[in-house]
Specification:
By secondary structure, the protein is an alpha/beta fold. The protein contains eleven helices and twelve strands. It has a seven-stranded mixed β-sheet with strand order 8-7-6-9-10-12-11, with helices on both faces. The chain has a three-stranded antiparallel β-sheet with strand order 1-2-3, with no helix packed on it. Helix 5 links the parallel strand 7 and strand 8. Bound molecules: zinc ion (ZN). The site of zinc ion has 8 residues, from loops.
Length: about 300
Protein backbone atom coordinates (compact mmCIF):
# COMPACT_ATOMS: atom_id res chain seq x y z
CA UNK A 1 0.00 0.00 0.00
CA UNK A 2 1.42 3.37 -0.86
CA UNK A 3 1.50 6.06 1.76
CA UNK A 4 0.80 9.73 1.09
CA UNK A 5 3.65 12.13 1.73
CA UNK A 6 1.86 13.67 4.75
CA UNK A 7 1.46 10.26 6.39
CA UNK A 8 4.91 9.00 5.38
CA UNK A 9 6.54 10.20 8.60
CA UNK A 10 3.75 9.17 10.99
CA UNK A 11 5.29 7.83 14.19
CA UNK A 12 8.66 9.46 13.53
CA UNK A 13 9.99 12.44 15.44
CA UNK A 14 12.41 15.28 14.87
CA UNK A 15 15.84 14.23 16.18
CA UNK A 16 16.55 17.81 17.33
CA UNK A 17 13.41 18.58 19.35
CA UNK A 18 11.50 15.29 19.59
CA UNK A 19 8.27 16.68 18.12
CA UNK A 20 6.07 14.51 15.89
CA UNK A 21 6.11 17.21 13.25
CA UNK A 22 8.26 15.96 10.37
CA UNK A 23 6.99 16.84 6.92
CA UNK A 24 8.26 16.78 3.38
CA UNK A 25 9.84 20.11 2.53
CA UNK A 26 10.67 20.54 -1.11
CA UNK A 27 12.79 18.08 -2.97
CA UNK A 28 14.73 15.58 -0.90
CA UNK A 29 14.28 17.47 2.35
CA UNK A 30 12.33 16.88 5.51
CA UNK A 31 11.58 19.71 7.90
CA UNK A 32 10.33 19.84 11.47
CA UNK A 33 7.14 21.90 11.76
CA UNK A 34 7.86 22.52 15.45
CA UNK A 35 11.49 23.69 15.67
CA UNK A 36 12.19 24.42 11.99
CA UNK A 37 15.17 22.07 11.70
CA UNK A 38 15.70 20.88 8.12
CA UNK A 39 17.11 17.44 7.35
CA UNK A 40 18.87 16.72 4.10
CA UNK A 41 18.90 13.49 2.16
CA UNK A 42 21.47 11.16 0.67
CA UNK A 43 20.38 9.64 -2.63
CA UNK A 44 16.80 10.63 -1.85
CA UNK A 45 16.76 9.08 1.63
CA UNK A 46 16.26 11.52 4.53
CA UNK A 47 18.99 11.62 7.15
CA UNK A 48 17.16 11.80 10.49
CA UNK A 49 20.13 12.14 12.80
CA UNK A 50 21.06 14.88 15.19
CA UNK A 51 24.66 15.21 14.06
CA UNK A 52 25.12 13.97 10.52
CA UNK A 53 28.68 15.29 10.26
CA UNK A 54 29.77 13.27 13.26
CA UNK A 55 27.99 10.12 12.04
CA UNK A 56 29.31 10.46 8.49
CA UNK A 57 32.87 10.81 9.84
CA UNK A 58 32.38 7.53 11.74
CA UNK A 59 30.98 5.93 8.59
CA UNK A 60 33.95 7.11 6.52
CA UNK A 61 36.24 5.46 9.06
CA UNK A 62 34.23 2.21 8.90
CA UNK A 63 34.35 2.31 5.12
CA UNK A 64 38.12 2.86 5.18
CA UNK A 65 38.75 -0.05 7.58
CA UNK A 66 36.43 -2.51 5.86
CA UNK A 67 35.10 -1.19 2.52
CA UNK A 68 33.61 -4.52 1.45
CA UNK A 69 31.50 -4.88 4.55
CA UNK A 70 30.32 -1.31 4.10
CA UNK A 71 29.63 -1.31 0.38
CA UNK A 72 29.37 -4.88 -0.95
CA UNK A 73 25.97 -5.65 -2.42
CA UNK A 74 23.89 -7.94 -0.20
CA UNK A 75 22.65 -10.57 -2.63
CA UNK A 76 18.94 -11.36 -2.68
CA UNK A 77 17.96 -14.71 -1.19
CA UNK A 78 17.91 -16.55 -4.53
CA UNK A 79 21.44 -15.41 -5.47
CA UNK A 80 23.14 -16.33 -2.18
CA UNK A 81 25.12 -19.57 -1.67
CA UNK A 82 23.00 -19.91 1.51
CA UNK A 83 19.72 -19.48 -0.42
CA UNK A 84 18.16 -22.64 1.03
CA UNK A 85 19.14 -21.61 4.55
CA UNK A 86 17.88 -18.05 3.94
CA UNK A 87 14.58 -19.43 2.68
CA UNK A 88 14.19 -21.51 5.86
CA UNK A 89 14.86 -18.36 7.90
CA UNK A 90 12.31 -16.36 5.91
CA UNK A 91 9.65 -19.07 6.23
CA UNK A 92 10.20 -19.20 10.00
CA UNK A 93 9.82 -15.40 10.31
CA UNK A 94 6.79 -15.37 8.01
CA UNK A 95 5.07 -18.05 10.08
CA UNK A 96 5.85 -16.12 13.30
CA UNK A 97 4.38 -12.93 11.79
CA UNK A 98 1.25 -14.72 10.54
CA UNK A 99 0.75 -16.30 13.98
CA UNK A 100 1.20 -12.99 15.78
CA UNK A 101 -0.97 -10.92 13.45
CA UNK A 102 -3.61 -13.49 12.57
CA UNK A 103 -3.91 -15.00 9.11
CA UNK A 104 -4.16 -12.40 6.37
CA UNK A 105 -3.90 -9.45 8.78
CA UNK A 106 -1.25 -6.76 8.70
CA UNK A 107 0.54 -4.71 11.33
CA UNK A 108 -0.38 -1.03 11.16
CA UNK A 109 3.34 -0.10 11.27
CA UNK A 110 6.17 -2.52 10.60
CA UNK A 111 9.85 -1.51 10.91
CA UNK A 112 12.91 -3.27 9.48
CA UNK A 113 15.57 -1.82 11.79
CA UNK A 114 18.92 -2.15 10.02
CA UNK A 115 17.30 -2.95 6.68
CA UNK A 116 20.57 -2.88 4.69
CA UNK A 117 19.98 -3.25 0.94
CA UNK A 118 16.24 -3.76 1.57
CA UNK A 119 15.94 -7.37 0.43
CA UNK A 120 13.83 -8.36 3.45
CA UNK A 121 11.47 -5.41 3.00
CA UNK A 122 10.30 -7.00 -0.27
CA UNK A 123 8.48 -9.78 1.62
CA UNK A 124 7.99 -7.98 4.95
CA UNK A 125 5.74 -5.55 3.04
CA UNK A 126 3.08 -8.28 2.96
CA UNK A 127 2.77 -8.00 6.77
CA UNK A 128 2.53 -4.23 7.22
CA UNK A 129 0.09 -1.52 6.14
CA UNK A 130 2.88 1.02 6.47
CA UNK A 131 6.41 -0.30 6.19
CA UNK A 132 9.50 1.52 7.46
CA UNK A 133 13.17 0.73 7.02
CA UNK A 134 16.20 2.41 8.56
CA UNK A 135 19.92 1.90 8.55
CA UNK A 136 22.93 4.08 9.33
CA UNK A 137 24.49 3.16 5.99
CA UNK A 138 23.18 5.48 3.27
CA UNK A 139 24.90 3.46 0.51
CA UNK A 140 22.66 0.52 1.39
CA UNK A 141 19.54 2.65 1.86
CA UNK A 142 19.87 3.97 -1.69
CA UNK A 143 19.64 0.37 -2.93
CA UNK A 144 16.75 -0.34 -0.55
CA UNK A 145 14.89 2.64 -1.99
CA UNK A 146 15.28 1.37 -5.54
CA UNK A 147 13.68 -1.94 -4.49
CA UNK A 148 10.98 -0.61 -2.14
CA UNK A 149 9.34 2.51 -3.50
CA UNK A 150 6.43 2.42 -1.01
CA UNK A 151 8.45 2.01 2.20
CA UNK A 152 9.39 4.98 4.40
CA UNK A 153 13.19 4.78 4.47
CA UNK A 154 15.53 6.94 6.51
CA UNK A 155 19.04 7.09 7.93
CA UNK A 156 18.89 6.77 11.72
CA UNK A 157 21.09 6.11 14.71
CA UNK A 158 19.65 3.23 16.70
CA UNK A 159 20.86 4.71 19.99
CA UNK A 160 19.11 8.04 19.29
CA UNK A 161 16.13 6.76 17.35
CA UNK A 162 13.80 9.32 15.70
CA UNK A 163 10.49 7.64 16.58
CA UNK A 164 7.72 8.08 19.15
CA UNK A 165 7.44 5.73 22.12
CA UNK A 166 5.43 2.62 21.11
CA UNK A 167 5.47 3.71 17.45
CA UNK A 168 5.71 0.25 15.83
CA UNK A 169 3.58 -2.91 16.02
CA UNK A 170 6.27 -5.19 14.59
CA UNK A 171 10.04 -4.67 14.56
CA UNK A 172 12.31 -6.93 12.50
CA UNK A 173 15.89 -6.68 13.75
CA UNK A 174 17.96 -9.06 11.70
CA UNK A 175 21.70 -9.64 12.06
CA UNK A 176 22.39 -6.19 13.49
CA UNK A 177 22.77 -6.63 17.27
CA UNK A 178 26.04 -8.56 16.96
CA UNK A 179 27.59 -5.41 15.41
CA UNK A 180 26.59 -2.97 18.18
CA UNK A 181 29.04 -2.56 21.09
CA UNK A 182 26.36 -1.37 23.56
CA UNK A 183 23.82 -4.07 22.76
CA UNK A 184 21.74 -3.54 25.90
CA UNK A 185 21.29 0.15 25.01
CA UNK A 186 20.17 -0.88 21.50
CA UNK A 187 17.64 -3.35 22.93
CA UNK A 188 16.30 -0.72 25.33
CA UNK A 189 15.93 1.70 22.41
CA UNK A 190 13.91 -0.94 20.53
CA UNK A 191 11.75 -1.63 23.57
CA UNK A 192 10.90 2.05 23.79
CA UNK A 193 9.60 2.23 20.20
CA UNK A 194 7.72 -1.11 20.27
CA UNK A 195 4.00 -0.99 21.07
CA UNK A 196 2.95 -2.93 24.20
CA UNK A 197 1.85 -6.32 22.94
CA UNK A 198 3.83 -5.80 19.74
CA UNK A 199 6.34 -8.27 18.32
CA UNK A 200 10.12 -8.05 18.07
CA UNK A 201 11.73 -10.58 15.72
CA UNK A 202 15.47 -10.65 16.43
CA UNK A 203 17.85 -12.70 14.27
CA UNK A 204 21.55 -13.15 15.03
CA UNK A 205 24.28 -15.72 14.37
CA UNK A 206 24.65 -18.44 17.00
CA UNK A 207 28.39 -17.83 17.09
CA UNK A 208 28.81 -18.29 20.82
CA UNK A 209 27.90 -21.98 20.39
CA UNK A 210 30.94 -24.25 20.75
CA UNK A 211 30.50 -25.58 17.20
CA UNK A 212 31.01 -22.13 15.65
CA UNK A 213 33.66 -21.11 18.19
CA UNK A 214 35.48 -24.21 16.97
CA UNK A 215 35.05 -23.01 13.36
CA UNK A 216 36.63 -19.67 14.30
CA UNK A 217 39.54 -21.40 16.06
CA UNK A 218 40.22 -23.41 12.91
CA UNK A 219 40.32 -20.24 10.81
CA UNK A 220 42.39 -17.44 12.35
CA UNK A 221 41.64 -15.13 9.39
CA UNK A 222 37.90 -15.33 10.07
CA UNK A 223 38.21 -14.15 13.66
CA UNK A 224 40.55 -11.33 12.52
CA UNK A 225 38.22 -10.15 9.77
CA UNK A 226 34.82 -10.47 11.46
CA UNK A 227 33.09 -7.20 12.24
CA UNK A 228 30.98 -8.85 14.94
CA UNK A 229 31.61 -7.63 18.45
CA UNK A 230 29.29 -10.13 20.16
CA UNK A 231 29.18 -13.91 19.82
CA UNK A 232 25.84 -14.99 21.29
CA UNK A 233 24.14 -18.20 22.19
CA UNK A 234 20.36 -18.43 22.53
CA UNK A 235 20.81 -18.15 26.27
CA UNK A 236 23.17 -15.15 26.33
CA UNK A 237 21.11 -13.02 23.90
CA UNK A 238 17.87 -14.08 25.63
CA UNK A 239 19.20 -12.91 29.00
CA UNK A 240 20.19 -9.55 27.50
CA UNK A 241 16.71 -9.14 26.02
CA UNK A 242 15.16 -9.86 29.42
CA UNK A 243 17.57 -7.39 31.03
CA UNK A 244 16.40 -4.77 28.50
CA UNK A 245 12.79 -5.39 29.57
CA UNK A 246 11.47 -7.80 26.94
CA UNK A 247 9.42 -10.91 27.52
CA UNK A 248 11.02 -13.59 25.33
CA UNK A 249 8.34 -15.78 23.71
CA UNK A 250 10.49 -18.17 21.66
CA UNK A 251 14.15 -19.02 20.99
CA UNK A 252 14.54 -20.85 17.70
CA UNK A 253 17.72 -22.53 16.41
CA UNK A 254 17.95 -22.77 12.64
CA UNK A 255 20.51 -23.88 10.02
CA UNK A 256 23.36 -26.31 10.50
CA UNK A 257 26.62 -26.67 8.60
CA UNK A 258 30.20 -27.92 8.75
CA UNK A 259 32.43 -25.94 11.17
CA UNK A 260 34.39 -24.42 8.28
CA UNK A 261 33.25 -21.11 6.79
CA UNK A 262 34.61 -21.66 3.26
CA UNK A 263 33.37 -25.25 3.00
CA UNK A 264 30.01 -24.21 4.46
CA UNK A 265 29.43 -21.71 1.64
CA UNK A 266 30.52 -24.21 -1.02
CA UNK A 267 28.30 -27.13 -0.07
CA UNK A 268 25.19 -25.61 1.49
CA UNK A 269 24.18 -24.07 -1.82
CA UNK A 270 22.84 -27.53 -2.64
CA UNK A 271 19.37 -27.97 -1.22
CA UNK A 272 19.87 -31.63 -0.38
CA UNK A 273 23.01 -30.83 1.63
CA UNK A 274 21.32 -27.98 3.51
CA UNK A 275 18.29 -30.18 4.24
CA UNK A 276 20.47 -33.09 5.42
CA UNK A 277 22.54 -30.87 7.72
CA UNK A 278 19.28 -29.46 9.12
CA UNK A 279 17.84 -32.91 9.81
CA UNK A 280 21.02 -34.25 11.39
CA UNK A 281 21.80 -31.04 13.28
CA UNK A 282 18.34 -30.65 14.76
CA UNK A 283 18.46 -34.27 15.97
CA UNK A 284 22.07 -34.47 17.18
CA UNK A 285 23.24 -30.92 17.99
CA UNK A 286 20.07 -28.87 18.45
CA UNK A 287 21.83 -25.88 20.03
CA UNK A 288 24.73 -25.71 17.54
CA UNK A 289 22.73 -24.20 14.66
CA UNK A 290 24.24 -21.33 12.67
CA UNK A 291 21.32 -18.93 13.23
CA UNK A 292 19.14 -17.84 16.11
CA UNK A 293 15.73 -16.22 15.98
CA UNK A 294 14.10 -14.87 19.12
CA UNK A 295 10.54 -13.61 19.37
CA UNK A 296 9.80 -11.15 22.12
CA UNK A 297 7.16 -8.73 23.24
CA UNK A 298 6.81 -5.75 25.50
CA UNK A 299 4.32 -6.26 28.26
CA UNK A 300 1.98 -3.49 29.30
CA UNK A 301 -1.34 -2.07 28.28
CA UNK A 302 -1.90 -2.28 24.56
CA UNK A 303 -3.07 0.94 22.97
ZN1 LIG B 1 12.05 19.72 15.69
Amino acid sequence: MSVTSEAAYAGLVCPACGASALQVSGQERVACGACGEVYGAVAGVPVLVRNWQELSAELEEARRVNPLWYEAVQPPEEASPWRHHLKKRRLYVESALARHLGAGRKAARLLDLGCGDGNHLLWLARYGEHVYGSDYNAVRLARAKALNADATLFVADILDYPAEDSAFDVIFFNHVIEHIPDDIAALRAIRRILRPGGLLVLGTPNEGAWWWQWAYRRDAAAIMSTDHCHFYTGQTIGLKMIKAGFKVLDTHHLGWGPPDWALDGRIRKYKMVDDLFSLAGRALLPRQASSLYLLATKEGVSA
